[in-house]
Amino acid sequence: MSAEATKAQERPVTVELAKEFGLSAEEYRNALDILGRTPTFTELGIISVMWSEHCSYKSSKVWLKTLPTTGPQVICGPGENAGVVDIGDGDAVIFKMESHNHPSYIEPFQGAATGVGGILRDVFTMGARPIANMNALRFGSPDHSKTRHLVSGVVAGIAHYGNCVGVPTVGGETNFHPAFNGNILVNAMTVGVAKTDKIFYSAAAGIGNPVVYVGSKTGRDGIHGATMASAEFTEDSEEKRPTVQVGDPFTEKLLIEACLELMETDAIVAIQDMGAAGLTSSSVEMAGKGGLGIELTLDTLPMREEAMTPYEIMLSESQERMLIILKPGREEVAKAIFDKWELDFAVIGHLTDTGNLVIKMYGETWCDMPIAPVSNAAPEYNRPWEPTPKSSDVDDGVLAGYSADLGDTLTKLFGCPDLASKRWIWEQYDSLVGGDTRFMSGQADAAVVRVPGQTKAVAITTDCTPRYCLADPVEGGKQAVAEAWRNLSAVGALPLAITDNMNFGNPEKPRIMGQFVGAVQGIGEACKALDFPVVSGNVSLYNETNGEAILPTPAIGGVGIMPDAMIAVGIAFKNEGDVILAVGETKGHIGQSIFLREILGREEGAPPPVDLAVERRNGDFVRSLIREGLVVSSHDVADGGLIVTIAEMALAGGVGAYLTAFDGASPRVLFGEDQGRYVLAVRPDVAASVQEKAKAAGVPVTVLGETRGTALSGRGGDIVSLKRLRDANENWLPTYMAAEL
Amino acid sequence: MKAAIVVFPGSNRERDAVAALEAVSGTKPHLVWHRDTELPKVDLIVVPGGFSYGDYLRSGAMAAHSPIMREVKARADQGVRVLGICNGFQIITEAGLLPGALMRNGGLKFICRVQHLRVENTDSPFTAKYAKGQVVRYPIAHGDGNYWTDAETVKRLDGEGQVAFRYLADETRADPRGNPNGSITDIAGIFNAKRTVLGLMPHPEDAVEALHGNTDGKPMFEGLVEALS
Lengths: 741, 229
Description:
The structure holds 2 protein chains of 2 kinds. By secondary structure, chain A is α+β, with helices and mostly antiparallel strands. Helix content of chain A is 36%, strand content 23%. In chain A, the strands form 5 sheets. Chain A has a 7-stranded mixed beta sheet with strand order 8-10-7-11-9-12-13. In chain A, strand 1 (74-76) and strand 2 form a beta hairpin. In chain A, helix 8 runs parallel beside helix 9 (147-165) and helix 8 (108-124) runs parallel beside helix 11 (249-263). Chain A is globular, with a radius of gyration of 26 Å. The two termini of chain A are 46 Å apart. The relative contact order of chain A is 0.13. In chain B, helix 1 (14-25) packs across helix 5 (218-228). Chain B is α/β, with parallel strands linked by helices. In chain B, strand 1 (3-7), helix 1 (14-25) and strand 2 form a beta-alpha-beta unit. Chain B has a 9-stranded mixed beta sheet with strand order 2-1-3-4-11-10-9-6-7, with helices on both faces. A two-stranded antiparallel sheet of chain B has the order 5-8. Chain B is built from 5 helices and 11 strands; from the N terminus they run βαββαβαββββαβββα. Chain A binds chain B through residues 156, 159-160, 163-166, 248-251, 253-254, 341-342, 426-436, 438, 450, 452, 565-566, and chain B through 9-10, 12-13, 15-16, 19-20, 49-51, 53-56, 109-113, 139, 141, 143, 203, 205-206, 208, 210-212.
């Protein structure tokens, strides 16, 4: 390859080419103004990815700024690779959730695998050893022809990557809805732990300091991946398969160990992974944050393919690569570590005082443009938006036709795709490697993972109810945060902070933008009221195919802390004769419930409202009971309402329940999804004192019955056997996945 | 008891093995890097779980040819106890310390769950602390645990007491649904002829403390400490 051959591959830079690269005519004119000339081909590529929705957050930034991001526990909020929160004793927890939606639809195995790889890098880049992975998955209708293939590929991809790197995948959530037929959601979360005095940031410093490239070699994969993720899909979206990257978890595992080993030395000034927009975003962001320039000479950069051009190298999204600014003279120390782990290591440039990004190769300069003006000029839109019209709860007329047997209804609900057991999925994930997993989600409302070498533990959950968000984005956003907070409280953890993964349709449509704005408002309100700030996040827009948008899905990843992993409480009933208590008030809100959708076939009404003061009061009460050792089993009331919650606890423990509170109860009481509620099982000798404590705390607590036998039963005899529920619950997904493709 | 744990690029359960050995023996095991050619003087060598070299070839096939494995084989020949867990079982089998081969799981999927096992032979330091026929629960986490060998070898393994563990469906039943990977005659772990080498797919090191949900794996390490101290 030569300069001449490179130039022969380049195309003339025009407004048409800019449009092909995803820039609007106005954005292109802006680029001309900043440079005072026509950009080179390489520069246009760089500008277009920097200004893509995916990298610039141009539609969302103005709203994200309104979220609460601070608190005494926050060490580092949004803006770095991941959020950092203090967990005491000189330890910090570092976490983030990120989407890999578009690539996972096009190529489910590699799309999901590289999603896991990317989020792991965001966390260990900051100095943390990853201790847990989680994921939130949304697929289309089970009847849709692609769903089975997508479930199979995504789950295998997550398993392939997570299992090999040796980070336990401790759960998450999986839902199905026809609105995701053309755009699935794959949101992956990683949680790591670090020492508070050993946290690494991305701002470059020190003119002349070497810029070092480590990890895998660069190939031609993923070029313009960020641009692809910033547009809607059409019928020909499968042609975008070449923009999907290929992951290598083995290299990632080596990269984790090598980077953590290097971090033990004092050689690093700044470090960042090469994620979306690869070398472009890492070099520009690092230099930009430090207010410096950066000069790269790409000839020595490790390449997987021959005859690569500077444009291709700068835009490649090849995986498992990091960019490091070293202190002067530490190249040999660093190189020895990467040699030991058999990873590529190359000094590819240095920091300058010019403020410019300079790219040299084949003896010529292909890019020389100022970083700050281009970064600062990244577009920021206050897009027009329409609020979603408010609705009210459905009236009793809707319920009048319902007269089915309760046992039959429960059996049907336990076998519906959203409530069916996801064992087929989570058994493919190594949830135990590390030996610190106390609970994976499913066994408890939040996963509980011990901090390695200590007794304290981190609790982790991911939550969102997209059907609530569609009906009312503000209440839905609030509910997603409240449910994460509730799930952490339900295991006995003190909720600390969240990461938000905002998945929406095309923001250029005021209706969709309104969903986004509403969700941010709801999230912000809940975060403030619950002292549960946002410390990291990711926005994925344009989740639309042929104009059909997904359900608005602001997925919330919540993290909490407890002093001892062994105080955590799971959902399973454990003994005969424990008293079953409901915490929180049951009002009977049935709109947008699973019951309404699955049994009556209606997706209607307002979602259950969230009273944040009540939420906090009830959660603080449950957590204090658990910390006092008074609770045997604990489960928040969510999808399916009170009776489904009790049945889940019974199934998990293989112990039934004799229920005395539901004689003649209406579906509103049994299946309503009122918020801020928990079901607890306590030993009979402490039941009275728990009720007294509740009274003192002003928390409504009612006795529902006691744990007993192998069925759900009441005064009228058995309602349904656990065996029948278990069969319905366990059979749906394996049967579905085993069917002919 | 002094122990060494061999670490390959891609090993990922070495920390679990360190924790289990240290908790039971009170001594921190040596970690030995795959490129090392010498082992310290130890009573037990553990080859841990993971994905050595990514397992992009047949599982364990690359690691079996690494420099350190020559030394592991030499020590095994001298009677030093060797414990290969999961990927470690695959590696020592590929290296010829044990007969047979480990193939892709019958269901073609990675599987992680708590598994019932029956202890088939207690005449070894690995299993001395169990009762013959005792049912224990260890976690499993593997994609290539489908143990296979020819019928004649299976007969010999049974006859010579070389089968260490078999999969069970629950406390009592040998039921095909209890076999997670399709291994021949439900074999989960085997000894060499002298019963100084044990390879098994399940993870005793992840069942040694209350946090793990059960401590059925602890007697294995206690037995080793007792025999080798």
